[in-house]
Amino acid sequence: MFRDENDRAARRSAEAKAKTEARRILEDRAALESDVSTPSSRVDRSPSDALVCRSRDQLIPTPRITATMSIPLDDQGLRFFVDRFVTRLATGSDGSPHVGFVQPSPHVVAVTLDQASRDAVVSVGLAALSNVRNDRALRIMSREKHAMVIKAVREVVENPTQANPDRTLHLIVMLSLYEMVSCTPNQIDSWIVHMDGAAALLTQSSFLLSLTNLDHREHLQFYFVAIVKFFSKRVVTPDLLSWSPDLIPSAPPEILPGVDLVDILIRLAKFYAYLHHKQPDAKEVVDSALFFEDELHKWETQLPTDWSFTVKESNTCKHTFRGQYHVYRDMWVSRVFNHYRWARLLVNETIVSQISKMAQPTPNYVIQRQQALDMISCMAIDICAGVASQEAISAQGVAEDPSHIPLLNGTFMLLFPLGVAGGAAGTPDEVHDWVVGTLERIGCTTGIRRALEMIPQLKKSVGKWRLAQKRWKSIHEYK
Length: 479
Prior knowledge:
InterPro entries: DHMBA_Reg_Transcription_Factor. Residues 1-22, 30-49 are annotated as: Disordered. This is Pc20g14320 protein. By secondary structure, the chain is mainly alpha-helical. The protein folds into two domains: 1-38 and 69-213, no CATH class; 280-479, no CATH class. The protein has helices at residues 2-37, 73-85, 107-113, 115-133, 136-158, 165-182, 191-201, 205-212, 216-233, 238-241, 256-278, 282-301, 331-357, 363-396, 411-423, 429-446, 449-476, and strands spanning 52-55, 58-61, 88-91, 97-104, 310-313, 324-327. Strands 1-2 form a two-stranded antiparallel sheet. Helix 13 runs antiparallel to helix 14 (363-396) and helix 14 (363-396) packs antiparallel against helix 15. The protein starts with a helix and ends with a helix.
C-alpha cells in the first residue's frame, strides 16, 4: 500500500513539474520574441560576458567565461558545469600527483555518454550560466533540458522495474541541483522535493540495492544529504527511520568515524522531530541537548590521528577567514568535519534558546548558556575556515586516489553549513558578515541563486537573536 502511495505521489509530482516547466518555456519564448521584435525594450548589457555584482559597496567580478557564440549552447552549459561544480584532479602528465596541472574528474566522461544524464548536467550548467550572464536564451534552453529530464524521470516512475537505478538517482540529484540554481525567494527548499522522490524510489528493492552497492563514502554521503534535508524541512523520511550502522557493511577503519557521526546525527534529527511535535519543557530539552553535546565532543576526541588537520595562515590565498584555512588529508574528511560542526553548533544553539526561555534559570544554567555561546562561536569560525579550505581545494585540484574523489566539488553542500554559521543565535558579527559576503560571491560567480536567497533569512535570524540577547541582558545581567 505504501509503495503504491509513494508511486502515485512521485508520479503526481513529476507531472505537475512537467506542466510547470512547459508553461515557463512558453512564457520565456514569448518574452524572448518580444525582445527580438522590440530592440529598444532590451536591457543594455556590457560587451564583457563577465557579470559584476555589487556587494555592500564592493564589486565582485565574475571570472570571464571563454565561450563564444559559435559554441553550441549545450557545450557552454556543460563547460560551465565542469568549470564551477566538478572536482578537479591535480595530476602530472604521467599520472602522478602534481598540483599545477588540473583536469576534471574521470567520472565526467561516463556521465556525458548517456543522453538523459548529459541533458541533466547541461540543464544545471545552462541555468547557472544564465544567472551569471542574465541571458534569457540560455535560461530557456536550460528549462527545455530540465523538462526533458523530468520526462525521463516520469517514465521511470511509471515503469520502475525497467529503470537503471544508478542513472535514475543521478537524474534526480541533478533535478535537485537545478532547483538550487533556479530557486525563487518562496521556494528556497524546493530541491528537497526531488530528494523525497529518491527516498520513495529507494523503498523498492532494485533501487535500494543500487544504494548499498555504492562506495562507502558515497553511501554515507546519501545519509548526510538526508540529514541536511531534515534540518531544512523538519520532516523525517523513511531513509532516516530505517537507518542502522549495519547498513554500511564491512566499513574500513578510515570510514568508521563517518558511520558513527551519521548515527549520532540521525538520532539528533529524531530528537528535533520529537521537539517539534511534543514541545517538552525547557529543562528536559537542555538536558537532552547536553547529552548530544557530550556525544559530539567525544566523537571528535576519539578520531584517529590521520583525521587530524592543520590550520594555515596566508595573506595571498583568496577568500580565507581571518587569513586562515584548514588543510585536511582528503576531501572526505573535510566534508565530514563540516557536518560535525554545524550539528554541534545547532545543539548549542538549542541549549541557548531553551535556557533563555526559563523564567528563573539557575546559576549553573546561566554558566551553561555562556559556554554554549562560546562553542557556537568556535564552531562557526571553524565552519568558515573549513569553507575557505574547500574553495582552495576547488581551485588547486585534489591529489589523491581518483576512486575516492566525488564527482561534485561540494559547492552546493557548503550552503547549509554556511547558513547555520551565518544565522545562528550567538554567531559573532564578524562571522555573519563573512558568510553573507561568501554567499553573495557564490551566487554571483557560480549562478546558484539559492545562495543569494538565503541572505535575507540569515539577516532576519540574526536580528531576532540580537533582540533576544538584549532582553536577556536586561533581565539577568545587572550592573
